[in-house]
């Protein structure tokens, strides 16, 4: 998965987990150590790592879109980045994490992760508020960084149909979507390389289609999980220009464009 900055961000630390780790401790965050049991390349740029949970799932429970903060060493400086759990199994104490590979210490760790490797993690700030009333239709905007959360969301909100705008530099065929053609309309959006438009192409495609789609749904739910700037732009658009109440919109930036 790509760096999850912004609300789930990346931060430089001091010794140990630094000042942010100290703050999380004051907020009663829970720390765990995960152990790698295996890894596999889903595509050339997307890798799945399997782990045991160090007792986490029994202590915290599980909810849709649940995520954890992992602590990576970056040339002696700690950094935390957040990742969504894939297939958590509380009985077995296992789950997987998916990494959209790019430059950076998290991707470097994922590329070389092997059975027996360990990594420290902190759980705090993750939650899931189920829309009430239930969605008649889900409208989701995401990319490879948020794909695990998107899959978890669509499972949790079944049987609601969904329209998904998905921005990616590669074909979607090899990515681990858990969508079904009968319920989910996935609309690929090609991400320019290098991405110099600040998400403008993605925003334009959403704006061109979303207003009419919303009119046909009595209880819509909009979920936005892109880079920070795109997420803010679309969240503002949906709330201010399209008039959706805040309880029908969930927006969280998963990474920050460099």
Largest sheet: 7 strands, antiparallel
CATH class of the largest domain equals Mainly Beta
Helix-strand category: alpha/beta
Q: What is the first-to-last residue Cα distance?
A: 16 Å
E-strand count:
12
* CATH fold name of the largest domain: Elongation Factor Tu (Ef-tu), domain 3
| Whole-angstrom Rg | 18 Å
Q: Any guess at the CATH architecture of the largest domain? A: Beta Barrel
- Residue share in helices? 10-25%
What are the segments in which pLDDT stays under 50 over at least 5 consecutive residues?
1-15, 22-27
Gist of the model:
The chain is an alpha/beta fold.
Mind sketching the topology for me?
Elements: H1 18-26, E1 30-43, E2 46-52, H2 56-60, E3 67-74, E4 77-84, E5 86-89, E6 94-100, H3 105-112, E7 118-123, E8 137-142, H4 147-156, E9 162-168, E10 184-190, H5 200-215, E11 220-224, H6 228-241, E12 249-251
Helix pairs in contact: 5-6
């Amino acid at each position: 998965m790509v760096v999850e900055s912004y609300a789930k961000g990346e931060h430089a630390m001091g010794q140990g987990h630094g000042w942010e780790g100290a703050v999380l401790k004051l907020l009663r965050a829970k720390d765990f150590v995960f152990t790698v049991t295996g890894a596999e390349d889903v595509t050339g740029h997307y890798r799945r790592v399997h782990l045991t949970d160090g007792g986490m799932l029994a202590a915290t429970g599980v909810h849709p879109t649940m995520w954890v903060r992992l602590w990576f060493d970056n040339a002696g400086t700690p950094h935390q980045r957040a990742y969504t759990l894939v297939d958590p199994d509380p009985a077995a104490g296992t789950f997987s994490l998916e990494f959209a590979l790019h430059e950076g210490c998290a991707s470097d760790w994922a590329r070389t992760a092997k059975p027996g490797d360990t990594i420290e993690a902190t759980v705090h700030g993750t939650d899931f508020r189920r829309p009430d009333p239930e969605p008649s239709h889900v409208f989701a905007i995401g990319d490879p960084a948020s794909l695990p959360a998107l899959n978890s969301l669509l499972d949790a909100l079944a049987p609601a149909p969904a329209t998904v705008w998905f921005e990616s530099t590669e074909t979607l065929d090899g990515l681990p979507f858990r969508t079904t053609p009968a319920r989910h309309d996935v609309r690929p959006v090609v991400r320019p390389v290098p991405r110099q438009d600040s998400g403008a192409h993605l925003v334009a495609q959403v704006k061109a289609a979303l207003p009419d789609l919303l009119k046909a749904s009595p209880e819509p739910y909009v979920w936005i999980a892109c880079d920070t700037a795109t997420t803010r732009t679309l969240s503002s658009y949906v709330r201010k220009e399209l008039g959706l109440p805040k309880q029908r919109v969930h927006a969280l930036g998963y990474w920050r464009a460099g």
